[in-house]
Write a structure and sequence with these properties.
By secondary structure, this protein is mainly α.
Length: 49
């Protein structure tokens, strides 16, 4: 029973860590998408002469 409890605790810690890292990755991806969208908008602006 001790090994089952230890396995469940390790699994829970791994799941929490995975969820945290996935959230961090999602934040970075959202920032990259916003930056690329702004960059495309700059590229599409007409040139002022």
């Amino acid at each position: 029973m001790v090994t089952s409890a230890a396995g469940l605790i390790i699994g829970l810690v791994a799941y929490v860590g995975y969820s945290y890292l996935q959230a961090q990755i999602d934040k970075v991806v959202n920032k990259m998408e916003a930056a690329s969208s702004e960059f495309i908008d700059v590229l599409l602006e007409p040139v002022k002469r």
